[in-house]
Design a protein that fits this description.
Layout: H1 9-18, E1 24-31, E2 34-45, E3 50-51, E4 58-59, H2 65-77, E5 98-99, E6 110-111, H3 118-123, H4 139-155, H5 163-171, H6 188-200, H7 204-216, E7 237-242, E8 245-250, E9 276-277, H8 279-290, E10 294-295, E11 298-299, H9 303-311, H10 316-325, E12 332-335, E13 338-341, E14 356-359, E15 365-369, E16 374-380, H11 389-400
Antiparallel strand pairs: 1-2, 1-16, 2-3, 4-9, 5-6, 7-8, 10-11, 12-13, 13-14, 14-15, 15-16
Helix pairs in contact: 1-11, 2-6, 2-7, 5-6
Length: 402
């Protein structure tokens, strides 16, 4: 790897901070099991001038999904969870699944022809979304938005709606398409979290802690941040366009049932968005995958299971629908709550065959590349970000340096 070329990474990060693209960020890169670079820029708290440090704790949002996928795969390895089994066998409320194609709130649900499979939860083909984006969205998406609003109010107040409650409530909401026939990003991973609880007999947090976090030494990863660590939790900012550029404003709302302050254990442990972590903690998780399921003598998954994750592909008809709905992920497929590069020449970023990972609503990003023994983890806290422009620029610099 051309280490000298990586020196330009600091300029990319600093320029993004200077232009108010985000308040702060950090990046950790490993090659061949060794750290080749750590970079940070900007602030974790603009009001106090606190820098974005190596131990800064961030809300991971959808980067919780790969962890939930690994938790499910642990149970698959043990013969306790079957990818082809109907979810209703674990959560009976889903036996009464309904579907509604009608737009708006006046639709008429009917009995769904197909039942949701565990694999549908992992591949986002369940029929559930993240709610309505307009009045023309189907009834189920309107009702999902209502549930999300209720979760946002509950997590900051009564904190009584549990992971199981969310799954039961979703089972009463009609899906937007027959399970397994289309792709739509949404609350599937949260239902999967409830399935994991049913199968394991533990809360999702307990299972993840016992089977993933403690073995890997991920001491700063959880569904909340205890009082003694609150001073390390980064603030969230939204980027607002101005006449002469852009500015950052604090964002303190709950989103997707995830609390902003992260200061108490939530009743709803979201398998799709609930975790917080640090760049170093998440790197341990990512390195475990790069190493074929093991890190520092602690095996989390079998090598064959990790190979299954990187070899996975959507069926051709579903891939076409994924391409239409997620054009920014051209060259990738989506399986097991992960993007997987299977046509890297079509991607909008330099990558390699079967590189996989995901990102989050506030901008955290992970890339696992077993072929090149390369692992990338980046964190930030800016709303509506996903994979950012600075992240793509940096990934291009890293891959062009191999």
């Amino acid at each position: 790897m051309d280490i000298m070329n990586l020196k330009e990474i600091q300029h990319v990060l600093d320029n993004a901070v200077k232009s108010n693209y985000f308040a702060g960020t950090n990046l950790l890169v490993y090659k061949d099991g060794k750290e080749v670079g750590y970079w940070q820029s900007g602030l974790a708290d603009v009001s106090t001038g606190k820098p974005f440090n190596r131990d800064t704790i961030c809300r991971m949002y959808s980067m919780s999904k790969p962890v939930t996928s690994v938790a499910a795969m642990i149970l698959v390895e043990e013969g306790k969870l079957d990818l082809a089994e109907e979810v209703a066998n674990y959560i009976p409320a889903f036996w009464n699944l309904q579907i509604c194609y009608d737009k708006g709130r006046n639709g008429t649900p009917q009995k769904a022809f197909k039942n949701i499979l565990v694999q549908d939860l992992l591949n986002m083909t369940s029929g559930y979304t993240y709610g309505a984006w307009s009045e023309d969205c189907p009834l189920g998406e309107q009702l999902t938005s209502d549930l999300i609003q209720e979760l946002n109010a509950d997590v900051a107040g009564p904190n009584k709606i549990t992971t199981q409650d969310v799954a039961e409530r979703l089972a009463k909401i009609p899906v937007s398409f027959e399970p397994g026939t289309d792709y739509n990003y949404g609350l599937s991973a949260d239902i999967l979290g409830a399935v994991i609880e049913k199968v394991s007999g533990m809360k999702l947090s307990e299972f993840m802690k016992k089977r993933i976090f403690e073995p890997l030494g991920m001491k700063d990863t959880d569904f909340y941040v205890p009082a003694e660590k609150q001073n390390r939790l980064a603030k969230v900012y939204k980027c607002v366009k101005t006449d002469d550029g852009q500015k950052l404003e604090p964002f303190t709302n709950c989103n997707l049932g995830i609390q902003d302050k992260m200061d108490h254990a939530p009743a709803f442990e979201s398998g799709g968005a609930g975790l917080c972590s640090t760049v170093e903690d998440y790197m341990k998780f990512a390195l475990m995958l790069t190493n074929g399921g093991e890190l520092d003598g602690k095996r989390i998954l079998k090598k064959g299971t990790v190979d299954f994750l990187r070899h996975a592909r959507l069926h051709d008809d579903l891939q076409q629908k994924f391409n239409q709905k997620m054009p920014h992920l051209s060259g990738y497929t989506y399986c097991n709550l992960l993007r997987v590069a299977f046509e890297p020449g079509k991607a909008n970023v330099i990558t390699d065959y079967e590189e996989f990972g995901w990102d989050g609503w506030l901008g955290p990003y992970v890339s696992v590349d077993i072929k090149n023994n390369l692992t990338i983890v980046m964190t930030m806290q800016r709303t509506d970000t996903g994979t950012s422009g600075p992240t793509r620029r940096i990934k291009n610099m890293i891959y062009s340096s191999l």
